[in-house]
Amino acid sequence: MTTEAIQTDFASFDTWPLEERLKVIIDANRRAVTAVQRALPALTEASAGIRERLVAGGRLVYIGAGTSGRLALQDAAELEPTFGFDQVVVLLAGGDDAGKHAQEGAEDDEEAAIKAVRQAKVSALDAVLGIAASGRTPYTVAGLREAQKRGAFTVGVANNANTPLLEVAEIAVLIETGPEVIAGSTRMAAGTAQKIVLNALSTAPMPELGRVYKNLMVGMRPVNEKLYRRAVQIVSAATAKAESAAERALKEANWDIRQAVVSLETGLGPEASLRILEQYDGHIHKAIRAAFKGEN
């Protein structure tokens, strides 16, 4: 496995000045970005399959262990506050405690993965992402294989070629980052590449779910002072209206960003804006077009 190789160029790492150590770590992360760019065709296929399942009402299910699992947990946790999307499940080797404390032995437990997939009731409606730097992690491979048996759309993300995870997945995403500066520490360049992939795959389908309008996160749920302020800025940017008008519209819409945007753009009241949004599954573009055609 290339991620486990010992790179002789870094053999004197422990004797280098701090600045030189930092430089090679940063350079390795640039390599991670390049690796992800090379995977764009596979990522596009994966994203299309994920979008299809999510639009149909399915869930995004992550399976992982160790660093990969914790990166998945972080990505999943951000989807609700960012997009108001909560149809996510994370199957993490070692359970919830592994999110805070490494439980390396749990990654070998294939039966636990199969049980977790069954308990989550993974089905043909769901899109399942299996992530493992090695591409060989037993928990992740077994979980993805079980999801495949249950008809789910499966994506395998790994940093090593010709590995079981990529072979079992419907769509294989190889992000070949090569040897780490600290040999075998895949929390580094491999982890950076995985983070980019997870961000991309979970974000790209959001416009079709009505969670993004223009390039604005209109599905966001304001729950604190910072997010109330951000909501006002989003509505103002979306409608080219003053922030004072945006804030009034948000208050009338009970701080529903999409409702406020439609109301300001069409002149409809809050209740009519909500009705037409519901009719078009939260898609602002469609709701506005329909309002101007008198379909409300």
Protein model, in words:
With 296 residues, this protein is of the alpha/beta class. Helix content is 51%, strand content 9%. It has 12 helices and 5 strands. A 5-stranded parallel beta sheet has the order 2-1-3-4-5, sandwiched between helices. Helix 1 (18-38) crosses helix 7. The longest helix is centred in the N-terminal third of the chain and has 21 residues, at 18-38. The N and C termini lie far apart (59 Å).
Summary of the model, kept short:
By secondary structure, the protein is of the alpha/beta class. The protein is built from twelve helices and five strands. Helix 9 packs across helix 10 and helix 10 crosses helix 11.
Secondary structure topology:
Blueprint: H1 18-38, H2 40-55, E1 60-64, H3 66-83, E2 88-92, H4 110-119, E3 127-132, H5 138-149, E4 153-158, H6 164-168, E5 171-174, H7 189-203, H8 225-239, H9 243-252, H10 257-266, H11 270-279, H12 284-292
Parallel strand pairs: 1-2, 1-3, 3-4, 4-5
Helix pairs in contact: 1-7, 2-7, 3-7, 4-5, 8-9, 8-10, 9-10, 10-11, 10-12, 11-12
